[in-house]
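Journal club prep, shared notes

We agreed each person brings one worked example of a sequence with its structure written out as tokens. Mine is Photosystem II protein D1. I'm keeping it raw so we can talk through how to read the token line rather than staring at a rendered picture. Sequence first:
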Amino acid sequence: NFPLDLAAVEVTSTNG
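Then the structure, token by token:
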């Protein structure tokens, strides 16, 4: 996951 997705990975994983 990208750095900008790290915070959102808990809520919603865009890249997995």
